[in-house]
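Customer escalation, tier 2.

The customer says the design service returned an amino acid string that "doesn't look like it belongs to this structure." They asked us to rerun it and document both sides in this ticket. The original structure tokens are below, unchanged.
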């Protein structure tokens, strides 16, 4: 039995779900994989937060240095969110010889090429399955498809919050502001919903998927983006009358160096699977030149599915190291 020492950067909703998954599944993970997972550190702005999650007091730190210097830490799990200091911590951890697993779509989408290059130099794993579609195995699927296929198109619903709002507007006949308040009351939307409703979150996710498909870093700023805040009940009703729905669709299409990415609310006819994706679920179509079009569907958010992907990535990081690094050239 091999022990994997883990440091958690961030102990919020996702970090505490990772901790719970590791504690609850420790024995079954050990039996299934031969690895015993031990959380050695939890990093947060306040030590009390770490202890509050259930980690022992000596595992709490407010700075990254003890983690970088601890030889018993094999994998750093970054679940702080936001671009900085997360992106710097990921680089520091790789350079200190740690594998890194992250769920951070913003840091990954803005720094993908640089982070992959750092991981390659350090000969360490960098895995980010949970950054798009939570527990939906998108990176695993893309990796498998890309071995044989050219991916020509990625199209889907990658933001649960906006899909919940659009579904509530359509099915309950309520205006945008009321649907947003309902999403906030149920914990689907943040108190400041800008990142979701203006399409930034979907743009980060699309940029990551398209960069992997194109083997070239396509920055989130390259995504033509429009959010859902100006969608009116009349537009929603009109879409329903035509047998379809308005959905926030992330769409990337291209080949070689020429890719076009956009995130925008569009009419989706009823004959299209994506019109039937309800509430906070996600669905992503991947089109390859040999496999054709496949669709991955499921909960694209939430602590438990996200932690499922993160813990699986921790084990793959140790199993496969830098062998799973994607090929991503720097953005021009
Ligand atoms: N705010 C995101 C969503 C969370 O609604 O999809 C998961 O990335």
């Amino acid at each position: 039995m091999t022990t994997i020492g883990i440091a958690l950067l961030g102990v919020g909703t996702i970090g505490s779900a990772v901790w719970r998954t590791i504690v609850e599944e420790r024995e079954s993970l050990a039996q299934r994989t031969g690895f015993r997972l031990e959380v050695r550190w939890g990093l947060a702005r306040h030590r009390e937060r770490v202890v509050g999650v259930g980690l022992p007091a000596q595992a709490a730190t407010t700075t990254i240095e003890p983690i970088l210097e601890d030889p018993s830490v094999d994998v750093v799990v970054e679940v702080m969110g936001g671009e900085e200091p997360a992106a710097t911590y990921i680089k520091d951890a790789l350079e200190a010889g740690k594998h890194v697993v992250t769920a951070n779509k913003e840091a990954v989408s803005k720094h993908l090429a640089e982070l992959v290059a750092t991981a390659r130099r350090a000969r360490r794993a960098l895995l980010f399955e949970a950054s798009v579609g939570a527990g939906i195995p998108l990176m695993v699927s893309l990796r498998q498809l890309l071995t044989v296929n050219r991916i020509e198109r990625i199209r889907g619903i990658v933001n649960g919050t906006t899909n919940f709002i659009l579904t509530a507007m359509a099915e309950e006949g309520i205006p945008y502001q009321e649907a947003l308040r309902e999403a906030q009351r149920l914990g689907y939307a943040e108190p400041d919903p800008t990142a979701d409703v203006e399409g930034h979150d979907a743009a980060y996710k699309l940029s990551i998927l398209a960069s992997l498909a194109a083997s070239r870093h396509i920055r989130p700023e390259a995504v033509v983006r429009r959010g859902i805040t100006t969608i009116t009940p009349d537009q929603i009703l009109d879409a329903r009358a035509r047998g379809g729905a308005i959905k926030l669709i992330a769409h990337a299409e291209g080949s070689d160096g020429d890719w076009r990415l956009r995130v925008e609310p569009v009419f989706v006819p009823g004959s299209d699977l994506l019109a039937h994706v309800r509430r906070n679920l996600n669905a992503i179509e991947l089109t390859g030149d040999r496999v054709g079009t496949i669709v991955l569907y499921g909960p694209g958010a939430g602590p438990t599915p996200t932690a499922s992907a993160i813990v699986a990535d921790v084990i793959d990081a140790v199993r496969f190291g830098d062998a799973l690094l994607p090929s991503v050239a720097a953005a021009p």
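Tier 2 assessment: The sequence is consistent with the input. Residues 195 and 201 are 5 Å apart (CA to CA). The chain has two domains: 2-134+304-324, 138-300. Sent an explanation to the customer and offered a walkthrough call.
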